[in-house]
Amino acid sequence: MTTRPTALITGITGQDGLYLAELLLSKGYEVFGLIRGQNNPKREYVERTIPGLKLVTGDITDLSSVMRAFHTAQPTEVYNLGAISFVAYSWENAHLTSQVTGLGVLNMLEATRLYAGNDVGKVRFYQASSSEMFGKVHEVPQRETTLLWPRSPYGVAKVYGHYMTINYRESYGMHASSGILFNHESPRRGPEFVTRKVTQAVTRIKLGLQEKLSLGNLDAKRDWGFAGDYVEAMWRMLQTDEADDYVISTGETHSIRELLDIAFARVDIADWEQYVYIDPQFFRPAEVDLLIGDPAKAKEKLGWSPTVSFTDLVHMMVDSDLAEQRTLAGL
Ligand code: NAP
Ligand code: GDD
Hints:
Elements (H helix, E strand, L loop, with lengths): L5 E5 L4 H12 L3 E6 L7 H7 L4 E4 L5 H11 L3 E4 L6 H6 L1 H23 L7 E7 L22 H20 L2 E7 L2 E2 L8 H13 L6 E3 L5 E2 L2 E2 H12 L6 E4 L5 E2 H11 L9 E3 L17 H7 L7 H20 L2
Parallel strand pairs: 1-2, 1-4, 2-3, 4-5, 5-6, 6-11, 7-10, 8-13
Antiparallel strand pairs: 9-12
């Protein structure tokens, strides 16, 4: 008798949690999402957007709540996406970021180990590691073997979670993998991140609802892909015979200026400089200047490749925000 694959996803209210839940439901999984807080404001949106998803209450900083979620869900696969994920916020909340984004991983690994008991093959584990761990990069492009040199409390916490995942794999023989994911975006991206901040502002400027857009460092470069592609890579990592770590990226890098070029051009505005202001509050105490990943290992071992180009990604986000802003403004 085959048992139905069952996933427990933390970070279910976030961008990746939503795409991953949709993907796994489409593959016939039973899917549980861990949701925190006594009255999470995103609960209603998540329930409406992902019918068939089951929510369990818990917080990754609270091991007993996580254990209860395991007991309810009885997962065969665990995806730990829950984190404080906004790099700028992590300097102002460094201790909290360490607890959630760092120690939260330890709680999830420990819960997985305790739940599996003597049968380590009972459950597979995915950790959402990050290209932010490369920070002040020591190699171009960045690979699985590149030295980690984080440049933010968030990056430091992710390095802790990354090595703890490797440690549990090596110590207990757990099927625990880390995806070192480079930036990935979508119409569901939080508005605090630069891509969505730009696409929302561009469409509001186009519709006459906003006059200017304030930004920080326009010279930073990122390897941006589409979130829908990246959750497919997470799933593929857990279908392998042996757990491992993988860089997931497009292999291309673009500056914030290029992002502005493409986003404004999509709404037929050529001279974006007149709308964009540099505001020092958006500069970071330490910047990650350049990220570009080499996804060769994921291509070879997982058969994974990105399907959405940078231009198409920006167009997708601008088009979605234009429709949303029109609706909100009653236009
Ligand atoms: P996101 O949209 O910011 O979502 C973060 C999720 O974590 C939210 O569901 C949030 O829940 C949850 N969370 C926060 N604190 C929690 C806690 N104490 N207990 C349980 N859940 C908690 O992030 P994302 O873009 O989907 O990214 C998913 C994961 O991948 C994160 O770990 C992120 O650091 C990592 N990552 C993202 C990227 C990227 O470019 N998107 C790249 C590399 C790695 P609430 O809604 O309740 O706050
Ligand atoms: N958010 C933001 N807002 N970023 C700005 C702004 C602004 O007004 N102006 C310039 N930037 C620059 C930042 O300084 C950074 O160099 C770049 O835009 C990207 O910033 P974010 O979109 O906030 O993303 P991030 O690269 O710091 O972090 C994201 O990617 C990581 C993977 O590399 C997050 O999703 C992290 O959770 C993820 O791990």
